[in-house]
Amino acid sequence: MSRETNAMLKPDFSDRTVVVIGGTSGINRGIAEYFAAAGASVAVASRSQDKVDDTVAALKASGAAQAMGTAFDVRDAPEVSAGLAGFHAALGDFDVLVSGAAGNFPALTARMSANAFRSVIDIDLLGTAHVMQAAYPFLRRPGASVINISAPQSYLAMEGQAHVCAAKAGVDQITRTLALEWGGEGIRVNSVVPGFIEGTEGTERLAPTPQIRQAIVDDIPLGRMGTTRDMGNMCLFLGSDMAAYVSGAVIPVDGALSERGAGWLGKQMGDMLRAMPQPGGD
Asked: Residue 262's pLDDT band (boundaries 50, 70, 90)?
């Protein structure tokens, strides 16, 4: 298939509304911009109004039919409900909802405070639940596609990541459960699991040196880190009619890295944390 033919097959979202929670940075912003380039009306939310404003301008420049945003914290259920109600009032029913707000930091469990553990659970797991509950009345029936952004820690145990492992495993179980509960209304729910994605905060945190970065690339079967385009392509697929029979799936976008398990990277993180004199997280 030629590149030109492949470009012609790119889904057209010009008549659709896409909402991206956590959509003002990293992977989620890349996904939002990719939907904008496909002609969607896109709404984004995060905790920073400055980031929201900057992202909305970028979405308009990318080709969004309409672009808007608001600041709220996914840990605050009433704020989430009010924000999503505002999006619905302005843009109508949601065709695609991407829920990607997340928090993470490396810390050994025995050195982590209860508040540190709870902070990740509150953002990743409770935040996802708040977004699902608040968005439910506004999802198009039938036809809506809900995409939760998960992490490899949801199914790969990793040293220094007990809080994230627990939270993201919960996110994937929410995905599976809602695929059952909402399927009868024509709503599809899936999780997408990014691997190492170029230019994102998570990758910078886990690969802080050129040596670690190269070791990770060498371990990826496809021989490169991913891009926000890779994530955008998967989300456009899941949001389109091409994925009309895909629901309840947890889909890695990681170049097959997760097939190797978390052994090398997890040990590196554990060794690094054990060598640190101070406790992690507070």
From this structure: low
Nearest 5°: phi and psi at 119? -60, -40
Q: pLDDT of 15-61, one tens digit each? A: 999 999 999 999 999 999 999 999 999 999 999 999 999 999 999 99
Tell me the sheet residues that pair with 251: 192
Least Cα distance to 186 among 281, 118, 90, 95 occurs for 95
Angle between helix 263-275 and 210-219 (nearest 10): 160
For each of the domains in the chain, give its residue range(s) and CATH number, in order of start: 3-275 (3.40.50.720)
Tell me, what amino acid is at 189?
Answer: V
> d(Cα 105, Cα 151) in Å, to the nearest integer?
13
Show the tokens assigned to 144.
Answer: 């809506």
Q: Which helix (H) or strand (E) holds 238?
A: helix 228-239
Residues 188, 191, 194, 200: is their CA dihedral positive or negative? positive
Q: What residue type is 42 in one-letter code?
A: V
Percent of the chain exceeding pLDDT 90 equals: 75
- Please name which of 179, 177, 195 lies closest in space to residue 187, comparing C-alpha atoms: 179
Strand-by-strand arrangement of the 250-253 sheet: 66-71, 41-46, 17-21, 96-99, 145-149, 188-194, 250-253
SS3 content of the chain, % helix, strand, coil (to 5): 50, 15, 35
Average pLDDT over every residue of 112-128: 95
Residue 262, both tokens: 């978390």
Q: Which residues lie below 8 Å from residue 240, measured CB to CB, with a gap of 6+?
A: 11, 13, 145
Cα separation, 265 vs 276, whole angstroms: 17
